[in-house]
């Protein structure tokens, strides 16, 4: 299992490190998308700076980056922990991509991809949580900051109840800790009332 875990961690990190948002930004805008908005390569910043079509493409590919190592672990290595560790590595790769100077996104889409690959049924809950938080407030960051731990709590509870493997609960906690850490600037802006709402802020210099 150790060799399989290491192999899938490497696979997950390499896949996660593919800077989809950066590539799409250059294709759409012919510049580094990290120079605007949040300074990240994720879907939200792509939407703000490059538009809906680019954002949809980035979202789909970033989700796939998280799902792929989870599926590899489950169906090729046949081990829940191997799948979970690979999905964790994909999030780390997305946040700190070796192919983009270790400056990536905040890991939300890849985290969703990870749970989609690990437990598709539970993953169906996440879009509902996202809509309940984003639609009334128009704060995408609020969905990440609040929705991620709520979703993680559901997975942990399911693992405690024996409905999901403990490895999936580990993934949920790991993903939550990374995502919350990367959203510290957003949390501060939310508390100060200066956080841009959905679709806003793409024309400003990058703030991180």
Query: Given the helix and strand composition, which structural class is it?
Result: mainly alpha
User: What do the pLDDT scores average to?
Assistant: 91
As a whole number of angstroms, the C-alpha radius of gyration is 16 Å
Order of helices and strands: HHHHHHHHHHH
Helical residue percent band: over 70%
Task: Describe the protein.
The protein has 208 residues and is mostly helical. It has one domain (2-192). It is built from eleven helices and no strands. The chain has helices at residues 2-17, 20-29, 43-50, 52-75, 80-95, 108-118, 120-123, 125-137, 140-160, 166-182, 184-192. Helix 2 runs antiparallel to helix 4, helix 4 (52-75) runs antiparallel to helix 5 and helix 5 runs antiparallel to helix 6 (108-118). It is globular, with a radius of gyration of 16 Å. The N and C termini lie far apart (38 Å). The model is unreliable at 202-206 (pLDDT under 50).
Could you give a quick summary of the protein structure above?
Helices cover 72% and strands 0% of the residues. By secondary structure, it is mainly alpha-helical.
SSE blueprint:
Elements: H1 2-17, H2 20-29, H3 43-50, H4 52-75, H5 80-95, H6 108-118, H7 120-123, H8 125-137, H9 140-160, H10 166-182, H11 184-192
């Amino acid at each position: 299992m150790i060799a399989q875990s290491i192999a899938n961690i490497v696979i997950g990190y390499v896949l996660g490190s593919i800077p989809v948002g950066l590539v799409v930004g250059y294709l759409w805008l012919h510049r580094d998308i990290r120079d605007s908005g949040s300074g990240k390569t994720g879907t939200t910043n792509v939407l703000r700076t490059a538009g809906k079509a680019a954002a949809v493409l980035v979202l789909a590919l970033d989700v796939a980056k998280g799902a792929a190592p989870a599926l590899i672990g489950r169906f090729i290595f046949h081990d829940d922990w191997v799948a979970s560790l690979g999905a964790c590595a994909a999030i780390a790769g997305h946040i700190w991509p070796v192919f983009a100077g270790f400056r990536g996104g905040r890991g939300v889409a890849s985290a969703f991809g990870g749970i989609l690959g690990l437990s598709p049924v539970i993953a169906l809950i996440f879009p509902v949580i996202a809509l309940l938080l984003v639609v009334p407030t128009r704060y995408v960051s609020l969905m990440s900051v609040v929705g991620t731990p709520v979703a993680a709590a559901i997975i942990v509870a399911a693992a405690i109840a024996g409905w999901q493997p403990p490895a999936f609960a580990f993934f949920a906690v790991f993903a939550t800790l990374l995502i919350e850490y990367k959203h510290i600037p957003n949390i501060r802006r939310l508390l100060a009332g200066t956080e841009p709402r959905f679709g806003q802020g793409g024309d400003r210099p990058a703030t991180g």
